[in-house]
Design brief:
By secondary structure, this protein is α/β, with parallel strands linked by helices. Helices cover 29% and strands 19% of the residues. It has 12 helices and 16 strands. It has helices spanning 3-22, 35-47, 67-70, 75-78, 92-101, 129-132, 139-150, 173-176, 191-208, 231-241, 309-321, 340-356; strands at 49-53, 106-112, 153-159, 215-219, 246-250, 262-265, 287-292, 324-330, 364-365, 374-379, 382-387, 394-397, 404-409, 418-421, 424-428, 439-445. Helix 5 (92-101) crosses helix 12, helix 9 (191-208) runs parallel beside helix 10 (231-241) and helix 11 (309-321) packs across helix 12 (340-356). The longest helix is centred in the N-terminal third of the chain and has 20 residues, at 3-22. The chain is globular, with a radius of gyration of 24 Å. The structure holds ligand FHN.
Length: 449
């Protein structure tokens, strides 16, 4: 081989290697969602509003779920925490009841977060709530049973990132990029075993011991974006055990084969104010956007920055208008109670949703592009115009194609004046009542035109 040929061969090999490892082939290749999975996707989209719960032994310190990392504790220090975790006030019925009272249609709870601590009865390791805490019980089992009883879907958040297991090796960005953190783990580990035995073992438990679940909400792949996560195997296992279970990965990237929902964190689909979301929005998969009720995910004792019910209502409406769900987070306290500030706000939101829900549940993003003034949602021949911020008397909607038979105020049924032309429709906007977050006008479309 000449020198030039050799260099060419090296380049070719490098291109192959890069292409091979960065291609989505590590996800579930040739994935064809089962009919029950497609059905579950529809139901997920119809549900629109879910409760996100971040709960773990970190709540004892009241400083969020990243406390192990943020305070640069060693795993040995952190291992003291479970000994103080005794949530004697945990009441699965009350938690599910609160989600329902808020108008939420599903719950997604952390089965384990980045501390790797299993909040369920796991036989894969003793780093779990049953074996390490005085509580000694499995709250996820109680929650799953209660969710089944009350007819609400339960999803399990599962962190692929692990700050505790030595086999999470080589370490990810959260350990290598944020200054020295000697957290007491050895400088070696078996990555394949971490994925195939530990993680898949726990996922098998979650998909076997808790009845039918809604799906798995993955988080943490962003810690090692270039690693081989054995997704083909893991996603295949999940879909094999429960074909209807939705895989919802919070990896902040374009969806990969085998994934069933695209989720966004603290942003609506396509926006990236958070700085880590992709702007690529799937036109195939259901969409979800998660956010917090104050500023924290896990219980944070000093975080008073609560969103008002009105802010949450607007978030929900904007999510629906962007064809997305809203997954709203609360972080329960270490005693198992949900703090009063969350409870009152969620009840207020629930009261509002009980009146406006028909313009949200079961809808898809409407025919007019979301804008500052508001959004539209659609269900069958009804288009719901959600007027959130508009002081003008007239509102022009540019893209309405079909003939509009009538326009009415959603709540009262009072007629709304409108004119329609080939350019769109102009509505005479009903006057806002005091404190009214969303003025909804419902347009009824004529059949087939
Ligand atoms: O690091 C986590 C964080 O603690 C929280 O769980 C959120 C929820 O979307 N996800 C991660 C950050 O992307």
């Amino acid at each position: 081989m000449t020198k030039a040929q050799k260099s060419f061969a090296v380049v070719l090999f490098a291109v192959f290697v890069v292409g091979f490892f960065s291609s989505p082939m590590w996800a579930q290749t040739g994935y064809q969602p089962a009919p029950e999975n497609l059905q579950a996707r529809q139901e997920f989209q119809d549900a629109k509003f879910g409760m996100f719960i971040h709960w773990g032994v970190y709540s004892v310190l009241g400083d969020g779920e990243w406390v192990l990392h943020n305070r640069k504790l060693t795993v040995q220090e952190y291992e003291r925490l479970p000994k103080f975790f005794d949530p004697e006030k945990f009441d699965a019925k009350a938690w599910v009841g609160l989600a329902k009272a808020a108008g939420m249609k599903y719950i997604t709870i952390t089965s384990r977060h980045h501390d790797g601590f299993a909040m369920f009865d796991s036989k894969v390791s003793d780093w779990n709530i049953v074996q390490r805490t005085p509580y000694g019980k499995d709250p996820l089992k109680m929650l799953a049973d209660e969710a089944h009883r009350q007819g609400i879907k339960l999803f399990f958040y599962y962190s692929q990132l692990d700050w505790h297991n030595p086999d999470y090796y080589p370490r990810g960005k959260t350990e290598t990029d944020s200054g020295p953190w000697v957290n007491g783990r050895p400088d070696h580990g078996d990555w394949n075993s971490y994925l195939d035995n530990y993680m898949d073992g726990q996922l098998r438990e979650l998909l076997t011991n808790y009845g039918t679940i809604g799906g798995i909400w993955f988080d943490g792949m962003w810690d090692k974006p270039d690693a081989d996560w054995h997704l083909e195997k893991t996603y295949g296992l999940i879909h094999q055990l429960q074909p209807s279970a939705l895989i919802i990965p919070n990896h902040h990237q374009t969806p990969k084969p085998g994934e069933d929902v695209q989720t966004f964190e603290r942003d609506l689909p396509g926006q990236n104010t958070a700085g880590f979301n992709t702007k690529v929005v799937s036109d195939q998969l259901p969409l979800e956007s998660c956010n917090t009720l104050n500023d924290s995910w896990g219980f944070n004792i000093g975080d008073k920055n609560y969103k008002t019910p009105e802010e949450v209502e607007e978030m929900l409406v904007r999510a629906a208008g962007n064809n997305s769900n809203l997954l709203l987070n609360i972080g329960p306290m270490p005693n198992g109670e949900i703090q009063e500030e969350f409870v009152t706000r969620l009840h207020a939101v629930g009261e509002w949703v009980s009146r406006y829900g028909d313009s949200i549940y079961g809808t898809r993003g409407g025919p007019v592009a979301p804008a500052d003034w508001g959004v539209t949602t659609q269900k069958g021949d009804k288009v719901y115009v959600h007027i959130l911020h508009w002081n003008g008397k007239l509102l022009a909607l540019p893209t309405q194609q079909r003939v509009i038979r009538s326009a009415q105020v959603f709540l009262s049924g009072a007629p709304v004046e409108f004119t329609q032309s080939s350019n769109g429709v102009v509505l005479t906007v009903p006057e806002a009542k005091k404190g009214e977050v969303d003025r909804v006008v419902v347009l009824t479309l004529a059949q087939g035109k």
